[in-house]
Write a structure and sequence with these properties.
Chain A: It comes from Oncorhynchus kisutch (Coho salmon). Chain A: Its EC number is 1.5.5.1. Chain A: It catalyses: a ubiquinone + reduced [electron-transfer flavoprotein] = a ubiquinol + oxidized [electron-transfer flavoprotein] + H(+). The complex is a heterodimer of chains A (about 600) and B (about 260). With about 600 residues, chain A is of the alpha+beta class. Chain A contains 15 helices and 24 strands. In chain A, strand 1, helix 2 and strand 2 form a beta-alpha-beta unit. The N and C termini of chain A lie far apart (about 50 Å). Chain B has about 260 residues and is α/β, with parallel strands linked by helices. In chain B, the strands form two sheets. Chain B has a nine-stranded mixed sheet with strand order 9-8-7-10-6-1-4-5-11, sandwiched between helices. A two-stranded antiparallel sheet of chain B has the order 2-3. In chain B, helix 2 links the parallel strand 4 and strand 5. The longest helix of chain B is centred in the first third of the chain and has 15 residues. Chains A and B meet through helix 4 and strand 12 of A and helix 6 of B.
């Protein structure tokens, strides 16, 4: 019997040359690359008052609020919004139970305007699952998960509707153009962004159709890239925004849409579960929402905290096997799966809030991370943060003399307003729930803590618990862990990864440098595979990462199937070597979610 | 004498390469709500060819035309961003749009080409959602103009156009007189990207609006879609060990 150590040694000793993986210009700059000599790199530039990166709930709410204020006060304001998806809503994925608080403030007449909030929550169930059974937990009013007054929405459709409202108000929206670079004034303040270049070949050389992106300059730039944005990652370092907060912690959420048997359909019903198939020390759980939009559609999914320790864990396969639980299977039997997708989400809450304003810009929405984790809701706080940003910006950007020390406006009033708002109160009250899972009893300890301290004291306890640290540092070496035996997909309730990825509608221009860039091409085999058995093969919900045998010689190499990527950002978060840097691919690439 | 104006006729299709398409529960068609629509890839190639011809000074003006609901103006704007001079949007929506097929579209394009005195009408060879491959040919027939279809190379030579056509047997080169109809095949060119500055500039270019009735075209369809079904699910294959087993199985299911 050969030992695991022997196999890993054999896999890593390679007599062949490793083929190069990364060719992106962020790793291999073009000014030193002879293939780029003489290529025109000048960019066309345009000016707006405010530029917004990201057409999600936060970005669109900020844009709408700015235009509403402009209309009220009869001032002119040019607001430009860029979005990497081919249409607004195509990269949006969420459960989702929407709390209409922010929407009521933004559009009190949202119903007349046709906002797609069609499914008021009628029933709220919470269970602890064991392998065969279900223990119901009463949803008492006051518990964070209670959904009375909320709506089950298809967030992609809601965001699309927000986009239509924004365009009507005069916001210039440019889907299909990704913000690839942050631009800086000479004084170090943010000047705006540049959109992605197009027409770069897979090996990093210029194609005949090469075109430079354009520069959009603004007095202030809002960054609403969603959870773990790639430009935000750069801004945290540039402006030291995270020096007084804990590192952000995350989870991955996978989701499917099913058309089920009409007899099993209960429109308005919300179901959540914890427990099986995860063990008590792995944070996570499921959701299943019955929509009411004509046909018997359910939105269901599974969330796994990315602080998990076993490198053999596959969030995708946990999701697939959860569907076989008798309580879930009985709803799905006879149904058809019509959509699939995945996205990382924030779990850090209050302890992980960074500074959100800096000279020339601000961070809004899930990018800094206002999600209320025990409520599993972040849309209402994201929208509110966008609105608060707009309200802080408007007087400065329309003033005759902005009285700013830097060329890009620094508007700390946004952060002050956040701290006075209900976002802050809400996040403060629930701050200890997620970290309370870090105890010997795991899930059960956390539930006891929630029941005792949150339900009774509403977060007024004077202490603030800490998270466990960076998610990427939590994995134990593979030799200390047991591989998990996942059941084979049955093709009726559970499915294989590739047919799932096909249902996300994702695609990218094939002939472009992989946008999953590696700082060092040799680390995946030398570190990730050698010590952790290549966890990226398991945590990527789209099959981007594969370890395949080398064509010549012995050993393995990492193959990156960039075209499959669904832009979930999990790899950038969970890579134990922190060697993967997700950058934005050519605009319009990525998933084609329809109402996810 | 160089031709004055070229019409590029665009089609707005479901981006059916990669999004998830499913059949409506009543089998009357395919679900299109919320699915990303964009310019048909062969029409992109057609636009690129027209713009190239203008850049080489063979033609003076490129007009982008499309028929359909309001969404279609976005597609026309993309064509304008690629270099077309102006656009014409023929509004067709609702039931008329659902029933609209190659014959109705060809009648509209033919009427417009005559009205605007176009010298060349360039289309994509077929739409990737219905794969009809009929509109270009019907347009040429209605106008009684020569046609160069499946073009993989187009050269203007005085009053004539030399077209290299992709056919099953290889390549066929023909020479046709203008005015003519051309349809673009895959290898004709690689379309340029519509860059953001050009999209912004395209907002200032004109798109005229009209209805089929303004052109004297009736939209009544002669085709009725009876039913749309998903392709049957592939059955699992069976492995056999020997040739005898194979023959036995083929006999058993009636193949031989």
């Amino acid at each position: 019997q050969r030992s695991l150590a022997h196999y890993t040694w054999r896999r890593n000793c390679s007599s062949a040359v490793m083929p190069r993986i990364t060719s992106h210009y962020t790793i291999f700059p073009r000014d030193k690359d002879p293939r780029w000599e003489g290529v025109e790199m000048e960019r066309f530039a345009d000016e707006a008052d405010v530029v917004i990166v990201g057409g999600g709930p936060a970005g669109l709410s900020a844009a709408i609020r700015l235009k509403q204020l402009a209309k009220e006060q009869e001032k002119e304001l040019r607001v430009c919004l860029v979005e990497k998806a081919s249409q607004i809503g195509a990269h949006t994925l969420s459960g989702a139970c929407l709390e209409p608080s922010a929407l009521n403030e933004l559009f009190p007449d949202w119903k007349e305007r046709g906002a797609p909030l069609n499914t008021p929550v009628t029933e709220d169930l919470f269970s602890i699952l064991t392998e065969k059974y279900r223990i119901p937990v009463p949803m008492l009013p006051g518990l964070p998960m209670n959904n009375h007054g909320n709506y089950i929405v298809r967030l992609g459709h809601f965001v699309h509707w927000l986009g239509e409202q924004a365009e009507e108000l005069g916001v210039e929206i440019y889907p299909g153009y990704a913000a690839a670079e942050v631009l800086f004034h000479e004084d170090g303040s943010v000047k705006g962004i540049a959109t992605n270049d197009v027409g770069i070949a897979k090996d990093g050389s210029p194609k005949d159709v090469f075109e430079r992106g354009m520069e959009l300059h603004a007095k202030v730039t809002l960054f609403g890239e969603g959870c773990h944005g790639h430009l935000a990652k750069q801004l945290y370092r540039q402006f030291n925004l995270r020096e007084n907060c804990e590192p952000q912690t995350y989870a991955i959420g996978l989701k499917e849409l099913w058309v089920i048997d009409e007899k099993k359909w209960r429109p308005g019903r919300v179901e959540h579960s914890v427990g099986w198939p995860l063990n008590r020390n792995t944070y996570g759980g499921s959701f299943l929402y019955h929509l009411n939009e004509g046909e018997p559609l359910v939105a269901l999914g599974f969330v796994v905290g990315l602080d998990y320790t076993n490198p053999y864990l596959s969030p995708f396969r946990e999701f697939q096997r959860w569907k076989h639980h008798p309580f879930v299977a009985k709803t799905l039997e006879g149904g058809d799966r019509i959509a699939y997708g995945a996205r990382a989400l924030n779990e850090g809450g209050y302890q992980c809030l960074p500074k959100v304003t800096f000279p020339g810009g601000m961070l809004i929405g899930c990018s800094p991370g206002f999600m209320n984790v025990p409520k599993i809701k972040g849309t209402h706080t994201a929208m509110k943060s966008g609105m608060l940003a707009a309200e802080a910006i408007f007087p400065k950007v329309t003033a005759e003399d902005p009285a700013s020390k830097t060329a890009g406006l620094h508007i700390p009033e946004y952060e002050d307003n956040l701290k006075k708002s209900w976002i802050w109160k809400e996040l403060y009250a629930v701050r200890n729930i997620r970290p309370s899972f870090h105890n010997y009893f795991g899930l059960y300890g956390g539930m006891v803590y929630t029941g005792v301290f949150y339900w009774i004291l509403r977060g007024k306890e004077p202490w603030t618990l800490k998270h466990a640290g960076l998610d990427s540092a939590q994995l134990k070496p593979a030799k200390e862990c047991t591989p998990i035996e996942y059941p084979k997909p049955d093709g009726k309730l559970s499915f294989d990864l590739l047919s799932s990825v096909a249902l996300s509608g994702t695609n990218h221009e094939g002939d472009q440098p992989p946008h999953l860039t590696l700082k060092d091409d040799s680390i995946p085999v030398a570190n990730n595979l050698a010590i952790y058995d290549g966890p990226e093969q398991r945590f990527c919900p789209a099959g981007v990462y594969e370890y395949v045998p080398l064509e010549t010689g012995e050993g393995m190499r990492l193959q990156i199937n960039a075209q499959n990527c669904v832009h979930c950002k999990t790899c950038d978060i969970k890579d134990p070597s922190q060697n993967i840097n997700w950058v934005v691919p050519e605009g319009s690439g990525g998933p084609a979610y329809n109402g996810l | 004498m160089s031709p004055a104006s070229v019409f590029v006729c665009l089609s707005l299709t479901l981006l059916s390469d990669y999004p998830v398409i499913r059949v409506k529960p009543d089998n009357s068609g395919v679900v299109t709500d919320g699915v990303k629509h964009s310019m048909n890839p062969f029409c992109e190639i057609a636009v690129e060819e027209a713009v190239k011809l203008k850049e080489k000074k063979f033609i003076k003006e490129v007009v982008a035309v499309s028929c359909g609901p309001t969404q279609v103006t976005e597609t026309i704007r993309t064509a304008l961003a690629m270099g077309c001079d102006r656009g014409i949007h023929v509004e067709v929506s609702g039931k008329d749009y659902e029933a609209m097929g190659p014959l109705q579209i060809a009648k509209i394009f033919a009427a417009l080409a005559k009205k605007e005195e176009a010298s060349l009408v360039i289309l994509g060879k077929q739409a990737i959602d219905d794969d009809c491959n009929q509109t270009g040919q019907m347009t040429a027939a209605l106008l009684d103009w020569p046609q160069g279809t499946f073009a993989s190379e187009v050269t203007i030579d005085g009053e004539k156009v030399k077209v290299v056509r992709e056919i099953d047997g290889g390549l066929e080169t023909i020479k046709i007189s203008m005015p003519a109809v051309l349809t673009a095949d895959l290898r004709l060119n690689t379309p340029r990207y519509a860059t953001l500055p050009n999209i912004m500039k395209a907002k200032k270019k004109k798109i005229a609006n009209m209805k089929p009735a303004d052109l004297g075209v009736d939209m009544v369809s002669r085709v009725e879609v009876l039913r749309v079904d998903e392709p049957p699910t592939r059955l699992a294959g069976v492995k056999v060990e020997t040739v005898d087993d194979l023959v036995a199985k083929l006999k058993a299911n009636g193949t031989i």
